[in-house]
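Structure (tokenized):
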């Protein structure tokens, strides 16, 4: 047992070293005496945003996969990404003309995360965790809500002014080049409070991963814990998406790779592994976008492409096993 934990700790240490090396490379590539202050200040903001969004996506995806007992699901099935696109569309199309104050960064940020959290809480009513049927019902409702919002967004985008449409498109993909420092500080405070709320739940999540019946037999108040964890998922996803934009497949990619590497059910290890993998993936992706493709497209494009391919590989692998 000790040898297994030692192996896990070595892997986590290796991932941490990889993250630190990635941060150092990201900060120092191309830096000289003349541009040191400017590049370090701008890149430091990007690094802080990457750490925050990577942490939020990793933890939210890990918790969601635990409570749904599925390694191929992400919180995006609740329609949160579609809600984000709809809100951005409505903000540009209506509020930018009628009530410009709502398009200011801070009001827009709180409106976005507030409505996205409301959607996630609403969908909890359709999932009690008692059966796979309830899970499928929640996914179905989330897909219906997401499809409805996507249709509304597409219809509005068809009649938008071309200049407004270009502004909108720049906000629909994850990017670390336009992070607001005030919002970043606010987001760190909120995420810190969420971590404080979650601080004693690692062993509880270990038990919840056994399923509804086993959790009840072991004395857990499953419904209460389920509502708490789904609320945490909604908050973390909302903050990450509202701050930098949606990265649909990042959590799926990094959480599953972490599980494959660590081969453990203990969430105290899986959380750290998923966070390190998520941050490292974003740093590598951002370096590729900036150095190879000269910022011609956002980092989310690379992450979603790799994550989509990885999802197909998981599905084909499980089909062969089945």
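Design, position by position:
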């Amino acid at each position: 047992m000790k040898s297994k934990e030692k192996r896990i700790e070595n892997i986590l240490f290796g991932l941490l070293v990889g993250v630190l090396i990635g941060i150092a490379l990201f900060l120092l590539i191309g830096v000289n005496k003349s541009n040191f202050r400017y590049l370090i200040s701008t890149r430091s903001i990007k690094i802080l945003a990457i750490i925050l969004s990577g942490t939020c996506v990793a933890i939210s995806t890990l918790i969601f996969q635990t409570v749904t007992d599925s390694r191929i699901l992400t919180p995006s099935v609740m329609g949160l990404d579609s809600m984000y696109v709809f809100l951005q569309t409505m903000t540009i199309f209506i509020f930018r003309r009628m009530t410009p104050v709502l398009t200011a960064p801070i009001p827009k940020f709180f409106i976005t995360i507030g409505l996205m959290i409301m959607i996630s809480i609403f969908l909890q009513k359709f999932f009690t965790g008692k059966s796979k049927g309830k899970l499928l019902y929640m996914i179905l409702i989330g897909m219906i809500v997401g499809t409805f919002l996507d249709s509304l967004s597409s219809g509005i985008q068809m009649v938008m002014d071309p200049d407004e449409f270009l502004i909108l498109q720049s906000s629909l993909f994850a990017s670390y080049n336009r992070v607001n420092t005030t919002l970043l500080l606010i987001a760190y405070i909120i995420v810190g409070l969420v971590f404080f709320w979650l601080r004693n739940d690692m062993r509880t999540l270990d038990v919840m991963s056994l399923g509804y019946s086993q959790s009840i037999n072991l004395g857990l108040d499953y419904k209460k814990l389920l509502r708490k964890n789904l609320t945490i998922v909604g908050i973390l996803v909302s903050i990450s998406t509202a701050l930098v934009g949606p990265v649909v497949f990042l959590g799926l990619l990094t959480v599953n790779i972490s599980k494959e590497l660590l081969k453990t059910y203990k969430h105290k290890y899986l959380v750290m592994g998923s966070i390190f993998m998520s941050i490292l993936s974003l740093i590598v992706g951002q370096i590729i976008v900036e150095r190879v493709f000269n910022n011609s497209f956002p980092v989310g494009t690379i992450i979603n492409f790799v994550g989509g391919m990885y999802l197909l590989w998981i599905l084909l692998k499980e089909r062969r096993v089945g």
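Reviewer-requested clarification: DSSP finds 13 helices and no strands in the chain. The longest helix spans residues 36-68.
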